[in-house]
Amino acid sequence: ASLIVAWVNVSRNAPHARLPTRSNTTASTHITPNSSRMRWAVSPPTWASLIVLATAALTPSSHAVHASPTSPAGRNVTLRLNANNVKGEVGTDPTVKLLGVVGNVSACEDLCYGYIVNGENGGVTRSASRQGEPVTVHAATLSTPCLSFTYHHLDFVKPEYRGRCFGHTDSQWDPITQLGIDSGCRQDAGVNPSRCTTPAPPAPPPPQPTCTTDFDCSGMSGTCHPNGTCTCRSGWKGPLCSTFDFAPSSARRAYPTQLWTWGGSPIVDRATGLYHLFSSEMSNNCGIEHYCVNSRVIHLTSPNATGPYGNREIVLGPRDGAWDNGAIHGISVHRLPNGTFALLYMGSMQPALLHHPNCTAGSGDSAANKTLGNHGGRRIGVATSESLNGPWSRQSAPLFGPDPAAWDNLDVSNPAPIIRKDGSVVMLYKGRGSKTQHMGLAFADSIDGPYRRNASGVVPPDLPGEDPWGWIDVDTGILHAVFHTGNGASSAGSHRWSSDGVLWVGDDTTPFPAYTGVMRWAFDAANPDHSNKTTVLARRERPQILLDGEPGSSYGKPAVLFTSAEDCQLSSDGGTGVPCPDGVGTDLSYTVLEEIARD
After folding, report:
1. Exposed, middle or buried: residue 172 (CB in 10 Å: 0-12, 13-18, 19+)?
2. How far is the first Cα of the chain from the last one, in angstroms, to the nearest whole number?
3. pLDDT, tens digit, for every residue of 273-299?
4. Is 502:454 a contact under the CB 8 Å cutoff?
5. CA gap 350, 322 in Å, rounded
6. How many CB atoms lie within 10 A of CB 193?
7. Dmax of the chain from CA atoms?
């Protein structure tokens, strides 16, 4: 019966049908140009090949590699099914291009090859999306061809990415497991075929950056010597001291949970010495993609900075009839100069929302996984309290929203205020406009605003990625910030620094990220999936930091990094999590911490 099912699945040539193979089988596939079907490279299949196929079907693998050395177009492509060649975003990384919106991975491959063919002829317009709207394919030159491509299936969990085809013009090839995404790497003429091996061969050591002043050492995170090298201060490492120096085997889950969570904002109460953590939690067993309609804020405490945190309570949830009726997400807690506390958050305006989705098995909510909310309703709000234990008082209107006359005219989120001793605020945030999604920068005389956009909102600042968080070095007065800029073993976070909060310095072209998805776990009997292991997270985002310094304020030195985490990305977005293919963890998102080494 399994043989017959395998034959039917291949014969009917259904779009997006995954061919269940192993990387060590002899069966190979190729993508036929201008076709929506995946076909056999040998025809017809022999019984022997069917037996190989059926045997492989019994052993699911998200790391299958399919080479196509003899495609009709003479193409030589390494194809990874259910794998995302992650690096950067369109608009923030010049090597990532949105090639178009198409119906299958074969058409995405065509766009990647067409990127060379049409390179010197300017942009090409195609009516390729499901809605039929024209899609502009970026212009290129023959000196910057598309070297690899990534396609999001039409049933991908994020609706805004469905059908999208992205191309890389650099040598990036480091795919990570993620259902609903296929990636291909070109090995044809003019492209080094060894680049497409898995794992990629190590690159030659890059030229070491040099310094001329201490500021070049990542904002005085080190001392610059006359020979142009930096000696890093405690907590930092790398040629320019831009990478966190983590304590060995110090990664831990911040708190146990069976619900999907997404990062945490830590703070210490200077009066009691108790550590507090505010975290985003999804209600009704829904997954992280429901953050606009199911997220709420929980509060936990611990006598230790590295947890585990407990005594969970819900402190902020969406308010019926208010502007933030959809969700409360992306929390960031801060002590103000007057000794009170502020929680900044992304509030989700969802006027059409009738009820919050319930993703619990057997709930009867058949539309739960389709109800993700409108991202255009994202705004920034604030809640204040005299105590970290609450109660928290919210405003009747957003603290900060999009500006119709500015670049971020659609929505704003991810607030990260840096609060000076005089109460003035430098706020980093993510903004989205009709033409771009980018990091934003605004200023206010107090946490309550009003906020003034950098450069009057005409253009966004030169800042990377998303999910910012910032602080002021208690010794030097230099402002620092970290951002989520990637995922996987080679990148996850980026570091920037500034002397005035207006002009920020840093460089993503050097391979020295602030941190990566590599986790070196501490012994933890309550977490056997990770205890004493080294793993690579599929997602590590939403960085926030517990500081050593003035308790609760923006002044200090990094002590513990908190982030969101996912061991793998699969098709589920709710429930109790699906086991990862490699046997380590599930796709349920959680909150993790890692201690930064100190002298």
Report:
1. buried
2. 64
3. 999 999 999 999 999 999 999 999 999
4. yes
5. 10
6. 12
7. 77
